[in-house]
Amino acid sequence: MLVSYLAKLPHSKIALWCYLIWYLCMVGLYFNPSPEIWLNSLGLCLLVGYALFLSTGPGTLARLRQRFWESLRLFMCPFLVSSFSSLVKGKGFLLLFSPLLSDNLIAISACISFVGMVKLASWQHGRQGYSVS
Q1: What is the pLDDT of residues 41-85, one digit of tens each?
Q2: Domain contains 80
Q3: pTM of the entire predicted model
Q4: 46: in domain
Q5: Which range of residues forms the domain containing residue 89?
Q6: What does 68-97 look like in DSSP terms, one character per residue?
Q7: Which of 122, 128, 112 is closest to 7 using CA atoms?
Q8: Mean pLDDT, to the nearest integer, of 87-110?
Q9: CA-to-CA distance for 6 and 115, rounded, in angstroms?
């Protein structure tokens, strides 16, 4: 099932997964347990996420249920952006990039490993006689 999911991932979703992997690597390296960071990020997630949800279609529970993962991403983005910016504030980051080469190499390696898994899954899935989208 996981191989099938990975094999069918479009490039746009691969990019989103790489953003998440980069985020998780940097959060792992720069984690701060301060409740203020995480509560502020959660509050922004709810406020901005709901605004994004409303701006992309009807704000109904039926839509939320029918398109759950798509809707969840609308809420996750503000959380990830606000928590990332709070964690790296004043640490010399340029956009998403750490001032330390080693930090960037860790995140790049994780993303390349993920893309490699996707390509391997696609190859494996194709070998089993399935058509890959």
Answers
A1: 999 999 999 999 999 999 889 998 999 999 999 999 999 999 999
A2: yes
A3: 0.86
A4: yes
A5: 12-123
A6: HHHHHHHHHHHHHHHHHHHHHTTTT-BTTB
A7: 122
A8: 97
A9: 9
